[in-house]
Structure formats: structure tokens, C-alpha cells
Amino acid sequence: MGHYAGTRLDYIVIVAYFIIALLYGSFFAKYTKSTKDFFFSAQRFSWWLIGISCIATTVGAYSFVKYSEAGYNYGLSSTQAYLNDWFLMPLFLLGWVPIIYFSRVTSIPEFFERRFSRATRVAGVIVLLIYLCSNIGFNFYTLGVAFHALLGWDIFYGTLAAAVITGIYTAFGGQTAVIMNDLMQGILLLVAGFTLFFLGIHFLGGWEVFWHALPLTHRLPFSGFNKPAEFPMVGIFWQDGMANSMAYYFMNQGLMMRFLAAKSVREGRKAAIFTVLLLMPLGAIAVSNAGWLGKAMVVTGLLPESVKATDIFVRVSELVAMPGVFGLIMAALTAAMMSTADAYINGVSAIMVNDVWRPFLAKNRTDKYYLTVARVFALVATFIGILLVPIFMQFNSVYRAHGAFTAAITPPMVVTVILGILWKRFTAKAAFSTLIFGTAAMFLSLNHHLFPFTVAPFAALHGVGPVGFIWMRACYGLVVCTMIGVGVSYFTAPRKEEEIQGLMVASLQKAKELFKGGKVNDREKGRTISLELRTAEVNDALIHPDDLMAMKTEPGDLIYVQDRRWWLGGLKSLHSRAASPAMEAEAQKQKAEKGVIFLSSKNIEMGMLNAGEVVRAEKIM
Amino acid sequence: MENPNNWFQILYQYGLGGLFFLVTLVLCFKEKGASLDHPEDRWMLKVLIGGYFGYLIVHSLWAYLARF
């Protein structure tokens, strides 16, 4: 296969994108003054920012190549993995999101210690670090492969520049830089994917030509139930729909931090709904369509039948993209890599600081010290990812190896999390056993010739042949890990309920009260109102009783104050407690005024707001 | 060649996935993680059920229209 060298305009687009990503990401360093800012952006963002950031994280550099190949071979059913997440939403939206948010858990290992034991936390740290670091390296590597295929660049050097830029803006800007950069990158990769689709349809001669060029099997939403063995629907359901999606929502530290950066649980829920109902289908089309177009082009004679499925993204891009657009597609690939890797880099940094450095190696230091450590670990994580690239280069089929590895380590973790939040009787020893013996059982299954009793029964039950065993490993893993967890729980004693308050679905009300520090106001949300911001020597936000009534807010409730420009997505904002007008008048000699919100100058500075401007205020809880 | 269709796949995915969906939804309400007395939880319940049937309808229509 020859390389499309790209025109000067393409190179200008790519280089411009690199510079913009670096400057834009680094700009947000000023919003990071504490570890809370660095990891969770001070919990200030709106649902749409979190949602777009989530889809940018989901779509990696490999997604375009991998799903285009599936789209070419199996048609529109390549979208299956993106469209089967909804089944997890009740537990995610009503259970996991409020638990992590209200219990102020900063990492999954920390949840393991608080819910189970320190040993479980240590096991969780090891598994998660392996998972996150391998994903950073894998994303770097796949971008290098794409650069090599499209431009002929050396795999290692091709990816180095993008990796360094990602590391720099993540280390300095933290979660705010990650989310704001992901906004740009998420939009870019969707725009580039759809541009390619529209250009391809136009190139083919219109929608009718495209649609009727595809065989019926390529137009269906699902592949065959258990055939072809390389892409069986039942395998995709268990591996992608269940195990990998559970891993994505319940154990992906990077994604978890994204939801913790939302201004409220309500906002985090809206972000997840927006992502799964709208952005995932759009993302599926963006990453797969080159494969569908390629198949139609082969049928209509625009591409030779000898074209390889693995090259289809490159061949279609070469064929339909004009100068400049090709550069845009390359920039989108880079964006996909950066926006996935940055989440993992931030995740590694969070685990190293919150689960290793702070509790074990350097206790009781200042927040500034931990912020510096967080930045150093973001750079270290980037460096490890770069070091892994030459290792990945030694494998012939790294996609398959990575898929098998991910599927092998995720079931023990997700079963531990899910049983942990749903079942009070799930014990610490059972959780630890699930992680250790579950992982061992998964690794045994990697060699099904030596251990045929592992995956084979689950594959046989669904009529999947040996070629498709890899897809059924997740089904085996989820069943075996659940059996270990349930079995050990029945022979060991659970922790006392009062020790694990707020960490299970059953004690969510308690978690809310602990978060708020008092009784929760569960009345309707009330209106978001515009108020003039003024400085005063007050402890909490002083608002006139009439305005409080409009917000359905009572003194002591948590409120959210943000810049009136909605499109900032909460970048300039803060949380505060609503003051009692009578008490503030008594204590601080400050009277409330209608249409005005009084905040201390320290709070105003923290929210990066300016006295005298109009802000919008709403009740959180 | 037999005419391929997707009805069994839809039944499997929305049946088994639906079972997980229903069990976890019921558990969240039964364990008092969510409550029908709470306005936001009522809204969530509507969205969750709507999303399930929305995806089911889209996949079913897609499988039907694929032959035209």
C-alpha cells in the first residue's frame, strides 16, 4: 500500500492543530490551584461539557481503524458496541454516580478501602495502574500506526509529538484542561467523521447508490447471532455490551473523574444520558462509516476487490478527501488519541497521589505539595506510555492482544464494584478473593487449549465455535467472578452497616446528608435566577428571601453560582451555602437585597467571578 | 442463501439486557437509593424506561427497513 503523503495544506492543518491543542490546553492551568481543581475541576461543569468530553474519551485513535475494518467486513452492525450501553444505566445513574459523588470518593481503590479493606485497595491500585498505563501506551501506539499508514511516518516518532503535547497540557491544566480540550477534540472528531461520510456518499453518487450497493447483511443492525465466529452478536453483547461497558462506567478512573467534575449529581446524570442516547450513536457513525463506504465502493467498482479490510479507512480517506480535509482527518485521529490518553493520564495521577503517595508515602503535607506531585505523575504516566510504544511494536496483532488483556482484567473489578454497591452482605474477604482469584481465573482462560473447561462451556451454550472463544471470555469472567464473590460472602462476615454508610445504594440518603452536612431539601429544584453579584463580609451566600423562594431554597441549602454566559459551561462558578438572611443581618450587619447575591471576596475570587456582574444562581440540594 | 434477519438478536439483547436493566432498576428503588416521592427520581425513571424502549424501537425499525 502506498502512502498518501499529504499536501502542504494538510501539514499546515495538522501542525496548526498541534499548536492550538497545546496552547488551548495549557491556558487552563490558571484554573488549577488545588488538587481538587486538578482532579475534579472543583465540581463545576455543565452536563454538555461532561458529555462531549465522555465521547471524546470513548473514541480513541484506534477506533477509526478498528471500526472501519468491522464496518467493511460486517456492515452497519459495526455500531453494535456503541449502541448497547443503556442496560447499565439504572445502576450507573441511580447507584454509582450518586455514591461516588456524595461519598466524596476520589478513586476506585479508595472506594475499595472504605467499602471493604486496605488489602482490596492495594489489589485495586495494582490492577487499575496496569489497565490505565497499558491504555495510555496503546493509544499512543495506535496513533503512530495511523500516522505510519497514512503519511509513512515512523511509528515511534510519529506519535511522540502528540504524546508530549498531551502530557504537558494534562500536567499543567489538570481536569479542567482535559475537559476543555476534550470539548474541542470531541467536536473535531465528530465533524471529521461526518465530513468523510458526506464526501463519501457524494463520491458514490448519492444515498440511494450507497444504500443499495450494500448487501442486506451489511444493512442490518446486528451481525449473525453466533456467526461469523470473528464477529458474533452474542460475543459482542457479552464482551462490549456487558464487560467492557461495565468497565467503562464502573472502573474507568478517568471517566469517573469526569462525572465527579459535574456541578451536581443531576448534571452528571444528564451528561450520561446525553452521551449514551445521542453522542454514542453519532460516534458510532463517525468511526465506522469509512468501512461502509469502502464496501459500497468495492461493489460499485470504485475500489478493487483486493483491498484489505485493515487498510479501508486509509483507502477511503485517500479517495474522497481533498487537500485540507485530509489534514482535518489526521487532526481528528490525533484528537481522538489525545482526548482518550489525557483521561487515563489524569487517572494515573489521581491514583498515584490519592492511593499511594498521600496515604502511604507522604502523609499530612500541604495541598500545594500534592498538586506538584500530581503534575509530576501526569508527566511520569505520559513517559511510561511512550516507553510502552516500542513494546507494542513488537507484537503482530496488538489489537487482539489488547482486547484479550482488557477483557481478562475487567470482570473481577466490575463484579467487585457492582456487588459492593448493591449487596450489603458482600464481604471484604469476598471482594479481595474476587479480585485475586477472579483475575487468576481470567488468565487461565487465556489458554483454552490447556484449560478447556473455562470458556468452552459458555461458547458451546451459545453455539460459538473455537474461533469465537475470545468473545465469550467476558461471559465466563462475569459468571465466575460473581460465583466467587457470592460464594466467599456466605462463609465470611460482612462489615457492620454503620461502617459503610453512604457507600451502597441502600444508604444513599445517608450519603446525601453526609455530603450536605445536614438534612436534605428534596423539594423541587425551583428556578435558576439572575442576580447582581456584590462583595460583602459574609460567610455564606446572602440572598433575599423572595429570591430564595423562587429558587425553592432554604437557608443551609447548597447553591451553585455561575457566570451568566451558559456557553462557558460552568468554567467560572462556585458552590456555596445559602445564608440565613436574619442571621447574617445579625452577625455581619449585612442586609439582603432583592435581586442581589452577596459573597465574600475570597469566594468570588475562587469562582473566578467579578463583583458587579450579573450571575445565575440555582439550588443544588 | 437464506434471507438473514435480526429478530432473534434483538430478542436476546433486549431480553437478557432488559433483565439486567429491570433487576438493577427495581433494586435501586427497593433499596431506597431512589424514590418515587422524589421529583428528580421520577424524571429519571421516565427517562430510563423511555431510553430502553427508544433503543428497542430504533433497532427494530432499522432491522425492518434494512430490507428495502
> Can you tell me the CATH topology of the largest domain in chain A?
Sodium/glucose cotransporter
Helix fraction bin of chain A: 55-70%
Shape of chain A: globular
Number of helices of chain B: 2
Total separate domains of chain A? 2
**Order of helical and strand elements of chain B:** HH
Structural class of chain A: mainly alpha
If classified by CATH, what would the architecture of the largest domain in chain A be? Up-down Bundle
Q: Spans of chain A with pLDDT under 50 lasting ≥5 residues? A: none
Could you name the ranges of chain B where pLDDT drops below 50 across 5 or more consecutive residues? none
- How many beta-strand runs of chain B? 0
Specify the biggest β-sheet of chain B. none
- The helix count of chain A comes to 24
Distance separating the two termini of chain B: 18 Å
| Gyration radius from CA atoms of chain A, angstroms | 25 Å
> DSSP strand (E) fraction of chain A?
under 5%
Please tell me the overall pLDDT of chain A. 88
